[in-house]
Amino acid sequence: MASPSSQTGADPSSAGGDAADASSSHAGRSRVGRENQRYGEAGARLVAGCLPIRARADGAGVEVLMVTNKHGDGMIFPKGGWENDETAEDAAARESMEEAGVRGDLSDLGEFTFRSRKGTDSDGDKLRCVARVFVMRVTEEMPRWPEQHSRHRSWCHPKVAIASCKHDWMRDAIRLWARRDGIDIDV
């Protein structure tokens, strides 16, 4: 089920800057707008995201990294638009760096379908979105990152991540990862 792991993200030192300059294609800033956005079958917006994880410092299990959404009224894992010039893996890694300031090794978790709270399709229905989600085993946590002033990050137990997560489809992704990797979450 999982794709081969790959190391993601460019070395910020190779871009001639610090961790705030970590986005290899857009140094120090997040990509915004939807002019390069990918759309799939029947007009579904394609997005990519990561469920960042790490071993707990005490060795007793794993933690999940959650970030606040743009409005600060809910917790999510990093995700965003999958653009025309990127693979799904590249988009997921970029979103994780921009929104949470992390890089790591990716494994494919699968696709999740949801309805956008923002957009509508040609029939006036909420826009259908298809999210490609990867589990990211975090290898680097940057002290500075592009969206650090608009998002707060928090490492938490998987149960807490599920309880605090704003979106049902993201909770489903966390549960699928836990089942796949044998993580006991009792939720």
Automatic annotation (TrEMBL):
Cofactor or coenzyme needed: Mg(2+)
GO cellular component: cytoplasm; nucleus
UniProt superkingdom: Eukaryota
InterPro entries, alphabetized: DDP-like_NUDIX, NUDIX_hydrolase-like_dom_sf, NUDIX_hydrolase_CS, NUDIX_hydrolase_dom
Family matches, as CDD domains: NUDIX_DIPP2_like_Nudt4 (cd04666)
Region (Disordered): 1-37
Pfam family, one: NUDIX
Transmembrane stretches, start-end: none
Biased composition (Low complexity): 9-27
Keywords from the UniProt entry: Hydrolase, Magnesium, Metal-binding
GO molecular function, one term: metal ion binding
Domain Nudix hydrolase residues, every copy: 43-178
Similarity annotation: Belongs to the Nudix hydrolase family.
Protein name, entry field: Predicted protein
Organism: Micromonas pusilla (strain CCMP1545) (Picoplanktonic green alga)
